[in-house]
Amino acid sequence: MTGRKLAAPVAVAAFGALLAVNAAPGVTGLGPVRRRAFPRLAGLGRPDHVALTFDDGPDPRTTPAFLDLLAERRVRATFFLLGDMVARAPSLAAQISAAGHEVAVHGYQHRYTVLRDPVTVAQDLARAMDVIANATGVAPRWYRPPYGVLSAGALLSARRLHLTPVLWSAWGREWTPGATAATVHQRVSAGLSGGATVLLHDSDCTSPTGSANAALGALPGILDRCEADGLRVGSISEHFR
């Protein structure tokens, strides 16, 4: 075999190895794995507390209703914002922060980090950080990747930006077709206990129309359940304080 013929399969093998290394952290996207091996990444915090988080906003069509409900219930949460949504509605992002909620990074575009090269992921995160900070006047400290799937490139970029990754331990799966307020409440309740981090979506920009409304409809019952169980509800930072 000539050197040129040998170089091709070696290059392919090396490229495959790099892809595998980059994708390896994606295993934490499996709930049982991260809860058992990476409890902090799973959002398991203070046993007397529940962290309430929202992804994919800010969305002028739906986010204001969430803010109104949270204000009525005197609850603060963490909003993992998409940079391109903030760019379209910077005043709404500022309103989230002004209301006392925590703003965090969900990326600029809602795309799997494992399907993007590390340089592109780094640029995406830095761009999201900048647009969120410019709109809200706050430097975010938490990061949640789109779809909850991390990559080596995303972890490295987050570390350079002083962002701490955090996923969740209970979710409503309101993005599934046919989801309703009742199904969202049932699914969240299945994982709801002291120390949990709850994931809901205040926008359906990446999911079927109406999914955010299903989350909104389930939210009062979720808050009632926490109150009945003697659990305080708040932001991620409060959760790990």
Query: Considering DSSP H and I runs of 4 or more, what fraction of the residues is helical?
Result: 40-55%
Supply the number of helical segments: 10
- Which sequence of SSEs, written as H and E, runs from N to C? HHEHEHHEHEHEEHEHEH
In the predicted model, the low-confidence regions spanning at least 5 consecutive residues are 8-20
> What structural category arises from helix and sheet content?
alpha/beta
Q: Compute the CA-based radius of gyration.
A: 19 Å
Mean pLDDT: 90
Cα separation of the termini = 61 Å
β-strand number: 8
Give the amount of beta strand, in percent.
Answer: 5-15%
Shape designation: globular
Give a short account of the largest sheet: 6 strands, parallel
Written overview of the protein:
By secondary structure, this protein is of the alpha/beta class. The protein has helices spanning 3-23, 31-37, 63-73, 83-88, 90-98, 118-136, 152-160, 181-190, 211-228, 236-239, and strands spanning 49-55, 78-81, 102-105, 142-143, 164-165, 170-171, 197-201, 232-234. The strands form 2 sheets. Strands 1, 2, 3, 6, 7 and 8 form a 6-stranded parallel β-sheet that branches. Strands 4-5 form a two-stranded parallel sheet. Helix 7 (152-160) links the parallel strand 4 and strand 5. The longest helix is centred in the first third of the chain and has 21 residues, at 3-23. The N and C termini lie far apart (61 Å). Mean pLDDT is 90; it is low at 8-20.
